[in-house]
Give the backbone structure.
Amino acid sequence: MQKKDFDAVVGAIKRAKNKTTAAIRELLRDRDAKAEAAALAGKRLTARGRVSALFDEGTFVEIGALVKRRATEFDSGAAVDSDDFEGVICGYGAVSGRLVYAFAQDYFRSKGAIGEAHARKICSLYEMAIKNGAPIVGIFDSSGAFILEGVSALAGYGKIMKAASKASGVIPQIAIVAGTCAGSCAAIASMFDIVILSEQNGKIYTNATSEKSDLSVVSVSVKDEISAIIEAKALLSILPDNNAVGTVRIDGARDPSVLVDVSVIENEGYDAHAVLSAITNNTYHELYADIAPEIICAIAPVGSIVSGIVATNPAVKDGALTSEAAIKAARFVTFCDAFNIPVVTLVDSAGLDTDNDSAYPYAAAIARLASAYAEAECPLVTVVTGRAYGAAYTVLGSKAIGADVTFALDTAKIGAMSAQSAVAFLWDDKFAGAKDPDVRRKELEAEWDETYGNATEAAMKGEIDDVIPSDELLARIAASLEMLSMKDASMPTKRRSNLPL
């Protein structure tokens, strides 16, 4: 074949491909328009609308846009449309100027059913996100597995699970449950670091007989999809891109030298949210608020350094450490440690929950929390703001279990047990014959606190670094976080020691 003939053939092929591509693009636009109309009728966003809301305008780049599901011998016209494309949109773009990857299941394409091609697109996205060290957002809205693919669909679930597991602790993963997220899909979403549920249309459950959402895996619940996307963007703005980034600083955060008013701690049964508001200027993002409210887990800049905050809450169950609270805190501390986010622990607790009635083994839950703190290599700063008794003191970030810096407010009470328990157990003979046993008991409890339960006693034994006034709470925490910002738990590479003269 002469060159001019060859060029003519190549030109014809290119024109045919361009014509085909143009037709495909037109088909995609038509499908998106129909999906938009259906979404408006159902008062929900399309997958493309959700992606547009997540990314900065004009930055989203779709990958695998033309991937189609393979036809099987069981397919029929009613089951699959040969002109349709896979029911998940994958791509990358900028969120507040930072690289983020995302996939959005498209309920208006094959009902977002998961099959071989669907899984392949998501797994390819994960590979790119891990290689480039950027967060991934998954928007879930699927009817479940594409049943006609049989075991191939089940394998698809497994491949996505493996990809999510591989990314865990390497890049942040945020799941937005915007529609149905059931069965194995719910398990996948639960593998993400943070799960945001849209209460308007979102449902996450594993039990096919009940479509009630399983709130035990939900990090944040919001009223609708837009609120869920806004929350995801806010979290992305303070989370590190990956586990190698190190300290994340927020410009314009509250001046840590400003004295804070946390006098609320003087009130019995106070709400610890007020303390968090004071030290973060009300910029904290609380996670798992619907689970074990006797302990608070939140992310916020403290001073200028983004930190995880664990705070017992005396307003609920007197801040007692229940099994659910221990598991919740352990999960949060582990997440922070994975991305080297400092953990600030505020302790004011009645101690262990003596009336624990959880189905979860109590000792195992406490052991989980102890392990989370003991194994953490991220900066750990702990402040006893009120009471810290027994095992609750030990496992909630004590110096003995691994805290780098520990403080106590000058009104704090620390001991093996409360004054009430100690007097009843050890000094019962001292008030048994008193004219007024109740008055004598109160006197003995005050004596116990003064002698054995005050913060200065703990500081003298080296378990507390300093006893501070409450208005210095933010300043001392922020200074400690600055000092620890270059912390490296691994032993530095050593050439040799320098011998003395």
DSSP finds 15 helices and 18 strands in the chain. Residues 76-82 have pLDDT under 50 and may be disordered. Residues 78 and 486 are 60 Å apart (CA to CA).
